[in-house]
Amino acid sequence: MPRVLVDAAAVPADRGALIRYVDGLVTALDRAGADLSVVCQRAEAERYRRLAPSAQVIAGPVAIANRAARLAWEQTGLPLLARQTGADVIHAPYYSIPLGAGLPTVVTVHDATWFTEPDQHSPRAAFFRSATRTAVRHARRVIVPSKATRDELVRVLSADPTRIDVAYHGVDLAQFHPPSEEEIRRAAVRCGLHGQPYVAFLGALDPRKNVPNLIRGFAAAVRRLDRPPALVIGGGVHEDDVDAACREVEATVRVVRPGYLRAPDLSGFLGGALVVAFPSRGEGFGLPVLEAMACGAPVLTTHRSSLPEVGGDAVAYTEPDAGSIATALGQLLASAERREQLREAGPARAREFTWDASAEAHLSSYQRAIE
Fold first, then answer.
1. DSSP structural state of residue 64
2. Across the strands, what pairs with 4?
3. Coil, strand, or helix at residue 299?
């Protein structure tokens, strides 16, 4: 089995879907008996030692907490560390790679929406487009989390499909599971709902998550209800766009914005919702959809990019415009029977996606890189 150096130092500190990918993968690689080294930020070292007790965990230099310093270290310090640890292959799990590593490098490209939806990203999109082009050109193997992402890289970058390996993400069923009544109550209290039913969104900053259209669609869907639910927007969303959308809707529409939620509250938050709405314009995988399904939540998402690969027949679909969201969400809110069907289908579908299977696919990719 090859000795693998995983560059977890590249993972941003916002602890979103990317950190769950690296955590889940490293844990499963360690469980599979991989010969594994993990380099990380100093503040993360003890956590990785708990996640992967058999791995060699290396705290990187203090300076790499600074993004510019980390990118410079990636080109010089990371290859040196790889030689010192006797690594056979480097895995860069976040777009950018060392160009003069002197040994095979595998990169994970999480999505192609930097190219297909450029106006739906933050100003840093130019960096990620450049890093992705470079990585796809120079890495020995490219790992992607869906067939849709593979196909888009081939289409927009003329990437060689024979060097791309699909490795679906998994879901941590210890964290994401159908919640108890106490877990639901605790999450509702933290969101200040006071017993009010709610529609949930959980996601990150990017405009492609389509939160403003969700707010508009939700307002239209609940306009004629005697006792409308709240819309709870969890996570870090684009504040200016959300503020503008909230100003457009009636004062009787309640939108709750609790910000980032604690990890122990996520199952209760997702599983306690009437519907989890994730009307993204495009995803490389769609981990929030998988995690919501694992919690037994009825999920409404879009037909875009990888999302049907993840949701299959266990979720409901909409187009991303506000009118379509209003129609689809209104239908779900009006049908307890349909919501119950999705609650039953979601966990079964989610169990098809495991970190153990993902780790096996990664190990195969590492071996191909060496060969």
1. G
2. 36, 89
3. strand
Q: Determine the Cα–Cα distance for residues 13 and 60; give it in Å rounded to an integer.
A: 15
**Residue whose C-alpha is closest to residue 93's, from 284, 262, 278:** 284
Give the separation between CA 310 and CA 320, rounded to whole angstroms. 17
Region for 296 from its dihedrals, namely left if φ exceeds 0, alpha if ψ lies in -120 to 50, beta otherwise: left
* CB contact set of 316 (below 8 Å; sequence gap of 6+): 298, 299, 300, 301, 328, 331, 332, 338, 342
Q: What is the mean pLDDT of the chain?
A: 93
| 346: CATH | 3.40.50.2000
What is the per-residue pLDDT for 23? 94
Closest to 286 measured CA to CA, from 178, 206, 180: 206
pLDDT surpasses 60 at 15: no
* Number of folded domains that form the chain: 2
Tokens of 107: 């990169």
pLDDT of residue 56: 97
In a domain, 175, yes or no: no
Residue whose pair of structure tokens reads 């990187």 in the numeric block: 60
Q: Is residue 323 part of a domain?
A: yes
One domain for residues 334 and 361:
no
Amino acid letter at 190? R
Using the structure block, give the residue that is written with the tokens 């150096």: 5
Confidence label for 124 from pLDDT (cuts 50, 70 and 90): low
Question: Are 118 and 187 part of one and the same domain?
Answer: no
pLDDT digits (tens, 9 = 90+) for 148-177: 999 999 999 999 999 999 999 999 999 999
pLDDT average, residue stretch 126-154? 94
What pLDDT, on a 0 to 100 scale, did the predictor assign at position 122? Answer: 62
- The rounded distance, in Å, linking the Cα atoms of 266 and 90 is 33
**Measured CA distances, 36 to 52, 53, 285 (Å):** 9, 10, 25
Nearest to 167 by CA among 141, 187, 185: 141
Lowest mean pLDDT segment, chosen from 61-70, 171-180, 269-278: 61-70
- Full domain range(s) for residue 274: 181-350
Claim to verify: residue 336 and residue 189 sit in the same structural domain: yes
Whether the CB-CB separation of 298 and 343 falls below 8 Å is answered with: yes
Model confidence pLDDT, tens digit, residues 254-275: 999 998 899 899 999 999 999 9
Residues 190, 306: one domain? yes
Going by C-alpha positions, the residue among 292, 324, 114 that lies closest to residue 202 is 292
